[in-house]
Structures are given as structure tokens and as C-alpha cells.
From TrEMBL:
Protein name (record): RimJ/RimL family protein N-acetyltransferase
N-acetyltransferase domain residues: 17-166
Keywords noted in UniProt: Transferase
Source organism per UniProt: Schumannella luteola
Keyword Transferase annotated: yes
Gene3D superfamilies: 3.40.630.30
One Pfam family it belongs to: Acetyltransf_3
Length: 220
């Protein structure tokens, strides 16, 4: 099957809705969700030193992060939370962003990454359903290999990737420069098209344990 580059589109699940990134519509929501030290602590955005200092700096940063010409950047909104039910709102609460990048139709490869979430949705249905939607979107367009990677020191993210059902391929040593100038390794994982049915079944089984919409608690 020949891969075809997906057009920007909305992907909707039971718990999240993924919308193509729009700087004017989404930056304030992403600032509220992501501009926290714990989000950048594990390597997101280049690590702790990459956290923008304020809202204007965040706006400049987020417009470029994961938003290349060969990418499809999505904003993650909650479905069915109190904001989504408010007739005067623009939709559910924005809780993160993720990207299908490095789109290569000839090699039928894509990189699922540049992913960050509001800490208040860690451990909920948000990440597994976001991955279910994005993986399904990639494989439906003929891509045969989806790469997912993390800073080699980020044990939490590496465990989450393995929990998806991805295969660990190895660590690229001294592969990236963090925002503070230090070097990090990159732990590389992948899911192949032949593995997708089993991975999809595992994600659907995880999501079946969740029933109520995801609601955010007040920040402590």
C-alpha cells in the first residue's frame, strides 16, 4: 500500500478531540496546559531550560514546535468535560498537543512525537486515546512504520511508550542537544503496520476501563 500524506482534519474519540493546530485559536489554551516545569522536566521542548519565560515567549515557541511543513500538528481537547458542554465555549478544555511529523511517503514512515499534556491528565484516558487516534490515522494513510521516541533519561515516557505496545529499537547515544546545551540520548521505539491490530486491541481494552469524561481538578 502506498502512503499518502493526510490532509489536516479533526479526529474525534470518546474522551478527546484532536484539532489541527491554529495559533490564534489554540495558543492560550496550550499555554495554560503546558507551560509548567513538570511538563518540560522529562525532555519535552528541549528539557527544563526550554520552558518559555512568559506567554509571549510561549506563543513564539509553540508556533514552531512540531509544526514543520512535513508535519500534521494536533491540539488535544477533552470531549464531554464541563467546558465542552458550555454553549459559549470554543469546545472542550485544551490539555495538550501531539504531532505526526517527518512524513515520508516513499519509505512509508512517520514520527509520532512532540507530545505534551497538562499534568492533570497524566494517567487518564487522554494519552491512550490520543495515540489510538493518531496511530490509526497514520496506518489508514498507508504508513507502514510509526516511530515514537523519548529522551533516554525520561523513564516515565519510555514506560508509557512500551505500555502502548511499541517495540524498543535501541538508544541513539548523544543524539540531541537539550535547551541547556547538554546532550541526551534518544530511546527509539516503533510500531509496524502488521503489529497495529494487536496494539489497537490493547489500547481499546485500556480505554474500555474508562467510562466518565475526563475532568480536570483544580491545580494544587
Amino acid at each position: 500500500m502506498t502512503a499518502t500524506r493526510p490532509a489536516p482534519t479533526v479526529l474525534t474519540g470518546r474522551f478527546v478531540r484532536l484539532e489541527p493546530f491554529d495559533a490564534d485559536a489554540h495558543t492560550d489554551g496550550l499555554f495554560a496546559a503546558l507551560a509548567h516545569p513538570e511538563v518540560f522536566a522529562g525532555g519535552y521542548g528541549g528539557g527544563p531550560a526550554g520552558l518559555p519565560a512568559d506567554r509571549p515567549a510561549f506563543g513564539e515557541w509553540v508556533t514552531g514546535y512540531g509544526n514543520a511543513a512535513d508535519a500534521r500538528k494536533f491540539v488535544v481537547r477533552l470531549v464531554g468535560d464541563s467546558a465542552d458542554e458550555d454553549a459559549g465555549s470554543a469546545g472542550g478544555t485544551i490539555v495538550g498537543a501531539s504531532t505526526l511529523g517527518d512524513l515520508d511517503e516513499h519509505r512509508e514512515e512517520v514520527h509520532l512525537g512532540w507530545t505534551g499534556y497538562d499534568p492533570r491528565v497524566w494517567g487518564t484516558a487522554v494519552n491512550p486515546e490520543t495515540k489510538l487516534l493518531l496511530l490509526g490515522h497514520a496506518f489508514a494513510h498507508g504508513y507502514g512504520r510509526v516511530k515514537i521516541q523519548a529522551d533516554s533519561a525520561n523513564e516515565r515516557s519510555r514506560a508509557a511508550i512500551l505500555k502502548l505496545g511499541a517495540t524498543f529499537e535501541g538508544v541513539l547515544r548523544r543524539d540531541r542537544v537539550r535547551a541547556d546545551g547538554t546532550f541526551s540520548g534518544t530511546a527509539v521505539h516503533s510500531i509496524l503496520i502488521d503489529e497495529w491490530p494487536a496494539v489497537r486491541a490493547g489500547l481499546e481494552q485500556r480505554l474500555a476501563r474508562h467510562t466518565a469524561p475526563v475532568e480536570l481538578a483544580d491545580r494544587s
